[in-house]
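With this grant's support, we have paired protein sequences with backbone structure tokens. One protein thus recorded is set out beneath this paragraph:

_____
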Amino acid sequence: MNRSIFFISQLLLLCFCSLSLAVAAQVETNGADSKEKAEAVIKKAVQNLGGEKYSQVKSQVGRGKFSIIKGGAVVSFQTFVDVIVFPDKERTDFKGGGSRTVQANSGNVGWVYDGGQELIKAQNESQVANFKLGIRTSLDNLLRGSWKNEAELAYVGKRPATLGKRNDVVKLTYKDGFTVEFEFAADDGLPQKAIYKHTTGDGEEIKEEDRYAQFIDIGGVKTPFIVDRYSNGTPSSRINYESVDFNKQIPDSIFVKPSNPKDAKKDLKF
């Protein structure tokens, strides 16, 4: 009798293990399907933004206006020149109110120039962290695959959009737990939004949402000329490009901290 009980218990254990393995395999398959769906959404977006031409963009120079919005109205704006060398170099020169501000980053270091005080300072840890957050949440970082080896990609599903349309949603989950979602129009595959949360220096958690609009074809590469930022559901800023150029030769020297304010405020010419 004891032998029979032992045999039956072993048989039940074997069946349970087989069932567990089957369930685990199903979960793994679902995870693989999720990644494949997300990759398909990205592939469609890249194709509609220019395909190989989009993928081969190494640098970008944008000019336009940056507006601060409060209470539904523009309270201030500045002109800007924004120079990016992918994946992690960027310099933005702002002009407005009779003064100039420069912010430049290259990897783990950066500097700022305050034209009002004629001062050049190295960026602190918080400023560098904000720059890296901008990379993590950028559309180009997602579509050009710079996140690989740093985050996991997954398909979230479809989400209601405007006028009865739906968006495909993909998500990046970084190793430290930070997540960012990107929405793409289900019909033409064009990017619509990037959504993420971050905590301010005061400990306040804010939901940020970047909305992309007015895609314009520049030499076979489509790019949004309007990027609206919503903070906790309220409009907070707008980037309005007036021109964008791709793959210009960018000297590394523009990202290096200048030795004096005079060099910092020289106009960028490309």
Notes: Residues 46-264 form a domain with the outer membrane lipoprotein receptor (LolB), chain A fold (CATH 2.50.20.10). The longest strand covers residues 205-218. The helical segments are 2-49, 52-55, 125-136, 139-143, 261-264.
